[in-house]
Design goal:
Length: 618
């Protein structure tokens, strides 16, 4: 056995470094070895807090006999889906040709060129019902490879041909308000009338869908508003929410929201913080709980090279009195937890997900009057910019790091869009134009030479060299697609600059998704949320005040639209000097605070009292 994972950036890969399997990391070298030996490739994809990934590792990948068989007949590659999301997306798309039960661990068998010819998910050590054992699958793959190679090549060619088709279809015009309302109606058919949420099986937070419902509520769709409120209130009072430390678990196994899968993800909690912040005072306790979880549990400590940034997740398993337990730590109250070591963190820092957390924390801190939350967002932003964009916004962008070491994974649209959106919201909450300037550069770098939308660093080179990168990041999973995140950032940027180039980037990023999104709103909530903003009136609010605690400022932050900014005269001038048109000529009036409420950059006369601003907002 050769250990190639012990020095990996990914904690998930490191966790498998002790397996008797001679794992290869993702890269050209593994496929070259498969070509040299003329053997199939086994690509195993998961992530550090994936429960069934841990189970399959214990049951199969730790079995010396099975590992020896795997090494003798395959080249085995281990991939962290969070480190290499394009690889995960490409092979998920390929796997859909073989199974409708997609998830992780994702088990894909490919030719030495990387083309998939069979795929599944978790396989047990012994057959269970109609599910074969992992060894049975390996035997069947080898039989096909040795005896029916022409069928294998034909299957892989068919999958490649399918992947080459554009998954989003031709670009579509922006939907009308009535078409968006109809999409809300389609969503409502999936609502569980008894226990709430979507579907009648396992229950997920569905944060991108909640974003769409929230935007339609802002557009005065009362049905969407009630639908979103039911989902948010149900989740906040359910076992999915950790009553002790405040964060939300990944999902609930049962229809009634019970039996959570206890991993806690940065992706879920960053998005849910934004959704509950939009709920306002009714959700103040839930907002505070999520913020405390992010800052108290997922924030990396001062001794970390990435101090202030956020870890990707916290595991579901821990040792309770020396015995491995799934969720046992979370079943205890605060005192009981204090006597036990907490579940491990996946301390990997991801650029895009940190951007989501930065934006959510900053916006929540501004709205609820918690400057320490804004400070936490600022510290995370500075950590990510200092490490992942060390050469500035025009330089290379790292997707991931661990303990100060950068991954060689290519930054995706998720990273650029997520970080840009977070920095813009931090700029609004903190009054610091420098963050908005970095965000503008990032967004503009995603317009490619042909006028299309692409991440600045291009696609994963291993996928590209094998013709496997046709799958685009268009639909939403647990997080918004990279295209939707870029569109969100570009549209918010447009409301600050007035530069129509930024609005066109937003439109172009989601255009390929719209036809599918209106018919399948459960899979495209984030894109539909942006589309709703694109077809709705744009309102902007700037308050200029020397004292950020001025009553006029407090009212603006509590009830204002997005974007709302409370800035000092000097900060307003800095934004204007940096080219953010919304702040042009925004100043005190007669030495008093002034509020400027605008629609499409056309502003009402400034007002200086809370009563006058409240009248404008209503």
């Amino acid at each position: 056995m050769t250990n190639r994972l012990s020095d990996a950036v990914s904690p998930y890969l490191r966790a498998h470094s002790g397996n008797p399997v001679s794992w290869w990391p993702w890269g050209d070298e593994a496929f070259a070895e498969a070509e040299r030996r003329d053997v199939p490739v086994f690509v195993s994809i998961g992530y550090a807090t994936c429960h069934w990934c841990h189970v399959m590792a214990r049951e199969s990948f730790s079995d010396p006999e099975l590992a020896a068989f795997l090494d003798a007949n395959f080249v085995a590659i281990k991939v962290d889906r969070e480190e290499h999301p394009e690889v995960d997306a490409a092979y998920l798309a390929a796997a859909s040709a073989f199974t409708g039960n997609l998830g992780w661990p994702l088990s894909v068998f490919t030719t030495p060129r990387g083309a998939a010819f069979f795929a599944g998910t978790y396989y047990p050590p012994r057959p269970v019902g109609e599910t074969p054992s992992f060894r049975m699958v390996l035997d069947a793959i080898l039989e096909a490879w040795g005896q029916r190679r022409d069928e294998v090549e034909e299957a892989s060619a068919s999958v490649l041909e399918a992947l080459a088709q554009s998954p989003g279809g031709a670009p579509s015009e922006l939907p009308t308000a009535s078409e968006l309302d109809a999409a809300v109606g389609r969503l409502s058919r999936f609502e569980d009338p008894e226990f709430g949420g979507l579907g009648r099986g396992s229950k997920f937070p569905n944060a991108p869908v909640l974003a769409f419902l929230t935007e339609r509520a802002e557009a005065d769709d009362d049905g969407a508003a009630r639908f979103a409120a039911r989902m948010l209130d149900t989740m906040a009072s359910s076992p999915l929410r950790d009553a002790v430390e405040g964060g939300f678990f990944r999902y609930a196994v049962q229809r009634n929201w019970s039996e959570p899968h206890y991993e806690r993800m940065l992706s879920d909690n960053a998005q849910l913080l934004a959704r509950y912040t939009a709920r306002g005072p009714l959700a103040a306790g839930t907002v505070a709980g999520i913020a405390d979880f992010l800052l108290g549990v997922l924030r990396l400590p001062p001794e970390s090279p990435a101090s202030g940034a956020f870890a990707s997740a916290q595991d579901s398993e821990s040792a309770i009195d020396g015995v491995r337990s799934e969720g046992g730590y979370y079943a205890r109250d605060a005192a009981g937890r204090a006597s036990q070591p907490p579940p491990a963190l996946d301390a990997k820092v991801l650029t895009g997900l940190n951007g989501l957390a930065i934006g959510s924390l900053a916006a929540a801190g501004a709205r609820f009057g918690h400057p320490e939350w804004v400070d936490g967002a600022r510290a995370a932003a500075d950590a990510v910019l200092g490490m992942h964009l060390a050469q500035g916004a025009d330089g290379p962008i790292a997707r991931a790091s661990l303990d100060g070491r950068l991954s060689d994974a290519v930054a995706t649209l998720e990273d650029v869009g997520g970080l840009a959106g977070g920095l813009l919201r931090l700029a609004l909450a903190s009054g610091e134009a420098r963050y908005a300037s970095v965000a503008r550069t990032l967004v503009e770098r995603c317009r490619d030479a042909d006028g299309g939308i692409a991440a600045p660093g291009g696609i994963d080179p291993v996928l590209a060299s094998r013709g496997l990168a046709a799958s685009q990041d268009l639909d939403d999973g647990a997080t918004p697609s990279g295209a939707a995140l870029l569109a969100d950032a570009a549209l918010l940027l447009w409301t600050l600059t007035g530069d129509d180039t930024h609005r066109r980037i937003a439109e172009d990023a989601i255009a390929p998704t719209l036809a599918s999104a209106l018919d399948q709103p459960t899979a495209f909530g984030a894109a539909l949320a942006v589309a709703s903003r694109l077809v709705s009136p744009v309102r902007q609010l700037v308050v200029v005040a020397e004292d950020p605690g001025d009553p006029l400022a407090n009212l603006a932050l509590a009830d204002g639209p997005e974007p709302t900014a409370v800035v000092t005269p000097a900060q307003s001038a800095a934004f204007a000097d940096a080219g953010f048109e919304l702040f042009e000529s925004r100043a005190l009036r007669g030495g008093r605070p002034a509020a400027y409420l605008c629609e499409h950059f056309v502003c009402a006369l400034p007002v200086s009292t809370p009563a006058a601003l409240a009248a404008l907002l209503s």
